[in-house]
Amino acid sequence: MTAQKTKPTVGVIGLGIMGSSISSNLQQTGFEVYGVELNAATRKKMKPLLTHVDADAKDLLLYTSKIISSLPSTQALMQVCQTLCEAKKHHKIKGTPILVEASTFPLKDKQQAKDMLLESGIHMIDAPLSGTGAQAKTKDLSIYASGKASDVKAFDAIFNGFARSHYFVGEFGNGMKMKLVANLLVAIHNVSTAEAILFGQQLGLESKSLVNIIGSGAGSSRMFQVRGPMMTSRTWKQATMKNDVWQKDMSIIYEALNDMKLPAPLFTACIPIYHAAMSQGHQLHDTASVYAVLEKMAGVDR
């Protein structure tokens, strides 16, 4: 690495489906992006696209005080936080670095990570993203940022570099709460999209016309517009949200609903469909593969 800072800098930890698009869009916007990724193949793919890519975050604070994390598990988040805390002490970093945590994790885990970082003088923003991997590529994301208002404000230019919109939603944790509401709707709309398209096709409607016309009408949803074409073209092997990752998000929503003893008949009805997608070999496929599940239930031959 070189410490020249001719452009604004930002670190991105986790270069998977979301992180790769976030980091490359920021680089193209004019930031120097320092990526961190454990997977060697992903590092090799991303190195030509970013200022620098490393396997860990131990030197990241030498080059930027603004970091975004997009991670697969709470275990990975805790490891990242520990590394950043140790690095701040080891490198004698002055000032207050800020970590924007963009993953979808239980709020209690994000709070634990925030507390760990704060002990070392690092602030954390809870800022989950609303949007698929395909939307991330085109900056069609919404950010639900929560935490200290001045910290969120400091990321305005960065958020504009990879998202369509960003919102300050108040105290730490409100971002995750907003994301749970959004994902509840996504879960329902994804299955309703599959149901509607299967209905239309069995009525004899042509697939492209079905997606275009219904997608522009009153019955449409963002998921119909995004995943409808994936269903009709059967391209769910090109995952923008893998079913196995989506199971984590579904579980968080279910636990929250259960804790509050809230009725959620539509969400609950979706759960077996996603479970069936997992059991039928679609674990690593996009959640648009629920269409294949409904086809099988209907006895449609493919």
Task: Describe the structure in your own words.
It is a single chain. This protein is of the alpha/beta class. The protein folds into 2 domains: 9-172, Rossmann fold, CATH 3.40.50.720; 177-298, N-(1-d-carboxylethyl)-l-norvaline Dehydrogenase, domain 2 (Orthogonal Bundle), CATH 1.10.1040. Helices cover 52% and strands 12% of the residues. The protein contains 13 helices and 9 strands. It has helices at residues 17-29, 40-46, 74-90, 107-119, 133-137, 149-153, 156-160, 174-202, 207-215, 222-233, 243-260, 265-279, 290-298, and strands spanning 9-13, 32-36, 52-54, 66-69, 98-101, 123-126, 129-130, 142-145, 165-168. The strands form 2 sheets. It has a 6-stranded parallel beta sheet with strand order 3-2-1-4-5-6, with helices on both faces. Strands 7-8-9 form a 3-stranded mixed beta sheet. Helix 1 (17-29) links the parallel strand 1 (9-13) and strand 2 (32-36). The longest helix is centred in the middle third of the chain and has 29 residues, at 174-202. The radius of gyration is 20 Å and the shape is globular. It starts with 8 loop residues before the first strand and ends with a helix.
